[in-house]
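input
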Amino acid sequence: MSEQKYYNRLLQGDSGALKRALYRSMGFTDHDMEKPLIGVVNTYTNATPGHVNLNQLYEQVQRGIEAAGGTAMSFGTIAPCDGIAEGHEGMRYILPARELVTSSVECMARAHCFDGLVLMGSCDKIVPGLLMAAARLDIPAIFINGGPMYPASWRGKHYDGNIVTEAVGWKTLGKIDEEEFARIERLAEPCAGSCAMLGTANTMGCLAEAMGMSLPGSAVVPAVLARRLQYAYQTGEAIVELVKKGITSRQIITREAIENAITVLMGIGGSTNGIMHLQAIHREAGLGNLPLQTFDEFSRKVPQVASVYPASPYDMVDFYEAGGVPAVMKALRGHLHGSALTVTGRTAAENLGTSCLPDDEAAEQDMALAGRAAGNSDTEYLSDDREAKRREAAEENAADANPGAVIRTAEHPFSPEGGVAVLHGNLAPDGCVIKPAAVPQDMMYFSGNAVVYDSEQESIDAILGGKVKPGSVVVLRYEGPKGGPGMPEMYRPMKCLEGMGLSGSCALITDGRFSGSNRGCFVGHISPEASEGGLLAAVRDGDRIEIDIPNRSIRLDITEEETAARLQNWTPKTKDVKHGYLSIYQKSSKSAAEGAVVE
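output
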C-alpha cells in the first residue's frame, strides 16, 4: 500500500492500519480517509444561547470542507454561559473554563493529529479558549462564531438581556410593578445568539477577525441570518485551502496580528476582558508576556471610531448594518499592520481592498429571515424602532457633519483616544483597566469616599438596601484570580447601581472583572489583588479614592507611612474552596495583569 495514499500521516503505512480500521468502524470510507482530516470543534450546547445554533452551522462547515476536498470530524468541549453562571458560585468557574477549553482542544488535536481545525464558538471564554488552542497547537486553523443575538425592545428602546438585572432595581424603587417585571423577563432574550451588546463574546469575535483568524466580515453577522450560514460554508472551504497551503496558526497569530486586534479593541471600545484574553493568546503563540502598558500606548494613539451598546444606543445589529469589523479596520487603516497574513491567504490590506458593506438586497433578505427566525410579537416593532434610530442618526450627522452614527472616520471619531484604558497608581502599581467608552464624560475624573465590601453579595445587599450613597466609591475586593477565586465578573453590583439610580454618582473598583455590558465609572483587574497583599486589601470605609482617567491614575489618598502600617497589620481573608479544578486554578493562576493564565 502506498505511503502517500492517505494525506494524514497517522493513516499511512502499516502503522496506520489500526487507525484506518477504527475510522472505518464509524462509516468513513477509504476515499474519506485519503483527504485531509479536519477536526471541527463544535461547542454546541442547548444550555447556552450563544451556542444553540452551532449544530446548524456545523452542517454548513462540513459541507464546505467536503466540497473543498477534506473530511470533517467533529468533537466538542465545554461552553458555559456567563449569564447563567452569574451571581452564584458558578461565576468563579467561568474564567478558569477558558484554560479547560484550550487544553481539551489541545488533547484531542494532538491525539488524532488532525491536519487542520475549524473552531466554532460564541461566548465569552470559549472564543479566547479556542484561539489560545490554535496558537498553542500551531496547525492550520480558522475560527467562526455563532453570531450576536437580536436586541430586546421595551418602551421604544433596545436593550440586551441585562435589562432584567436593571429591572430588579426599578422594581425595588417602585418604578415598575410585578406584571411589568415579568413582561421584561419574557422579552429580554428574543432569539439565539451571543448577547446583543459589545460584551466579551462579541468583542472577542471582532478581535478574532481583526487578527486574521476569521473570514473578513463574519464576526458580527447576527446569529439568525442566512449570511451566517454562508460564512460557515466558506469557513469549511477556507480551512482546506489553509491545510493545502501549509499556513499554520502562528503564521497568522503574530505580534503584528495581535497589535491589529488591540487597535480594533481600542477603536470599538470593546470589553475590558479583551485585554486579558489577548495577553493569553499572545503568550500561547510563543510571543511571551504582553504588558498592560502596551494597551495603554495603543489607547493613547488609536481613536474610538465605533460606539456600540452599552456605550451608545446602537446595538450589534446596527454595528453589522454599518459595516462591522471591516468598516472599522478601514477607518483605522493608518494604525494597522497591512502586511499581516489572514486565513484568506491574503494580507489584511488585501482583504480591506474589497467592499466591506453588505449590499442592500442581501441586507433586506437577511432582515426578513431574521424576522421569521425571531418569531415573536416584538419583531415588527424592532424593525420600526431601528428605522426611527436611523432617522435620528441621520439628523445627528447632518447637524455635526459626522460621517456615521455607529462607525465614524478617524478624522471625526467618537473620541480621539481608545475606548479601553489602563490606569496605574498606589492602588494598582501593576495596573488596572477601565472602559472610557462606557464612562459618562462628567465621570472621567471621580473622587469619593470608599465603602468597602469583601464579597460581591455583600455589595449587592448594601446597594439594594440603600446603604450606598451618591458620591461613594464602592470597593469590592478578594475577587481576583486567586482571591475570588476565579476572578468572577462584578456584573450584578454595577447593574444594581444602575437600577437604583446610582450609576451616575458612584464609582466601583475591584480586583475582579466586569461584564462587557456594564457602563458607568468602573475599574477592574486591580493588580496586585487584595489576596496577594495589594493596597486594595488595606482600604477602609471613608478613605478618599481618586480616579483620573485622562491622566491614567487611580490613587488612595493616604500617606506612605499609613500604607506601610496598614499592610504590616494585614492578614489575608480566606474562602472555602471546594476540592477540584477551582482549587487547582487558584494555586496556579497568574495575576490579572498577566492575563490570569495558568502556568
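quick obs: The chain has a mean pLDDT of 90.
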